[in-house]
Specification:
The structure is a single chain. By secondary structure, the chain is mainly beta. It folds into two domains: about 5-35 and about 225-389, Acid Proteases (Cathepsin D, subunit A, domain 1, Beta Barrel); about 50-220, Acid Proteases (Cathepsin D, subunit A, domain 1, Beta Barrel), CATH 2.40.70.10. About 5% of the residues lie in helices and about 40% in strands. It is built from five helices and 29 strands. The strands form seven sheets. It has a six-stranded mixed β-barrel. Strand 24 and strand 25 (about 350-355) form a beta hairpin. The radius of gyration is 21 Å and the shape is globular. About 50% of the residues are buried. The structure holds 2-acetamido-2-deoxy-beta-D-glucopyranose (6 copies). One 2-acetamido-2-deoxy-beta-D-glucopyranose binds near residues 159 and 198.
Length: about 400
């Protein structure tokens, strides 16, 4: 699955005749418990220290996505990417892309002495039934060419990293203030896998603040303990969750109440690239029933709901998502009422879209939860940690 945030609420699921998987380089295997026998000190790899990179907020009336700089090539060219826990590969606009990518900074592979053209072409099409700007047909489609080059993040360098150059894209991508996407899935790949092999601890942390607060950041290989008070609560990924960041939740609460529909156990995906939250239709309806009868589906854009903008800001809409910590203790991640309003619909600006989208088949949360916590994404221990901020 390739899933990230577009505009106000899309979770993009890749469907493609010629899928990215076909073109993808074989992921590097990371041996997480590799050091069993003692190794002579002289052979011990030198640990890499964690690095922190600042993130900017793609804000369109609401916080959408957070992106930062990496460098690619020799000499290095700066490429801005969304660090997306909902996907796993690196792709960015290149000079092979013509006018379609003119709003993005383009990487010029001819200026990099370390660039290797692998030359496999593929395309990836994104589809979902929901969104303020709904996906229709193939209106979110990237054309890609596989390659390898040096990639650096915060000064840590990974040679010969698999990546994809965007050679064409549909117009919907034109508004992005960044050039690409760096997947940060629960199985380390690309630059992150290389850095782990070089001795970097196999975790990263996100501090995704609202635009008004600023100073958002990602720490690769560590935890920035200056960004929260109190302690981190860790929960384990379910066995077999593969590369998806997912936690089991036994129950949802809205405004302190629960119902039989909300008491169901479900696995919830954590996608830093998506800002709205997605639940199956019956769950979304049960949640809205505890907020206001005036919130109704916005039929022009399937999966979305809305209410008159002048009613929305006074509605209590506290969502508690229950989880179980590694020690067996229950804890909640809480979305405050202030997240309910994600802004006016384009086709009717008097109606404001509400946070929860109906999406049958999965449950997914993103930025609207993550910006209220410091989050730790522990690949090596297959767990996630949260501390309130
Ligand atoms: C990314 O680098 C550009 C300069 O190339 C700089 O203007 C911008 O502020 C940087 N963005 C972040 C989030 O650090
Ligand atoms: C990466 O490549 C550079 C230049 O070829 C080399 O100096 C460096 O040692 C390489 N780094 C690693 C970790 O292999
Ligand atoms: C770069 O990676 C490719 C694919 O993994 C490998 O075949 C090639 O030998 C590597 N090149 C160098 C210089 O390490
Ligand atoms: C890029 O894609 C658009 C469709 O989105 C298509 O019309 C156009 O011909 C493509 N350009 C190239 C150079 O392939
Ligand atoms: C931690 O608590 C202190 C004292 O209340 C406060 O001044 C500080 O801003 C807090 N730091 C964070 C990162 O929340
Ligand atoms: C989670 O939230 C619900 C609803 O507000 C509350 O009843 C429950 O006590 C909370 N659980 C924890 C562990 O705080």
């Amino acid at each position: 699955m390739f899933c990230f945030k577009r505009l106000l609420s899309l979770c993009l699921l890749a469907v493609s005749a010629q899928t990215l998987v076909d073109a993808q380089a074989v992921p590097q295997t990371i041996h997480l418990q590799s050091r069993v026998a003692p190794v002579p000190a002289t052979l011990r790899r030198r640990a890499l220290n964690p690095v922190t990179v600042p993130l900017a907020d793609f804000f369109l009336g609401t916080d959408l996505q957070w992106f930062g700089n990496i460098s690619v090539g020799t000499p290095p060219q700066t490429v801005s990417v969304v660090f997306d826990t909902g996907s796993s590969t690196l792709e960015f606009a290149s000079t092979l892309c013509g006018a379609a990518c003119d709003n993005q900074v383009k990487f010029d592979s001819t200026k990099s002495s370390t660039f290797v053209d692998v030359g496999t072409t593929s395309s990836i099409t994104f589809s979902t039934g929901v969104g303020v700007d709904p996906v229709v047909g193939a209106n979110y489609r990237l054309t890609l060419r596989s390659a390898r080059d040096t990639v650096s993040v915060g000064g840590l360098t990974a040679n010969n990293t698999s990546l994809f150059l965007i050679t064409n894209q549909t117009a919907k991508f034109g508004i992005d203030p960044f050039s690409g996407i760096q997947g940060m899935s629960a199985r380390a790949q690309g630059f992150f896998a290389s850095l782990i092999n070089q001795g970097l601890p196999s975790l990263f942390s996100l501090f995704l603040t609202p635009q008004a607060v600023g100073h958002a950041e990602m720490t690769v290989g560590g935890i920035d303990t200056t960004k929260f008070n109190g302690s981190l609560t860790f929960a384990s990924l379910p066995a077999g969750s593969s590369s998806t960041w997912v936690l089991n939740s036994p129950q949802l609460f809205v405004n302190g109440k629960s119902t039989s529909v909300l008491k169901a156990s479900r696995n919830i995906i954590f996608d830093s690239g998506t800002s709205n939250i997605l639940f199956p239709t019956a769950t979304a309806n049960a949640m809205y029933a505890l907020i206001s009868p005036d919130i109704v589906p916005h039929t022009a854009e399937p999966g979305t709901y809305g209410i008159a903008c002048d009613l929305i800001d006074t509605l209590p809409a506290v969502i508690d998502i229950a989880f179980t910590s590694q020690s067996g203790a229950p804890f909640n991640l809480t979305i405050p009422s202030s997240e309910l309003n994600v802004g006016p619909f384009a086709d009717n600006p008097a109606i404001c879209q509400t946070l929860i989208n109906a999406f049958d088949g999965l449950s997914l949360v993103g930025g609207s939860v993550l910006k209220h916590y410091y989050s730790v994404w522990d690949v090596g221990n297959q767990r996630m940690g949260f501390a309130a901020i």
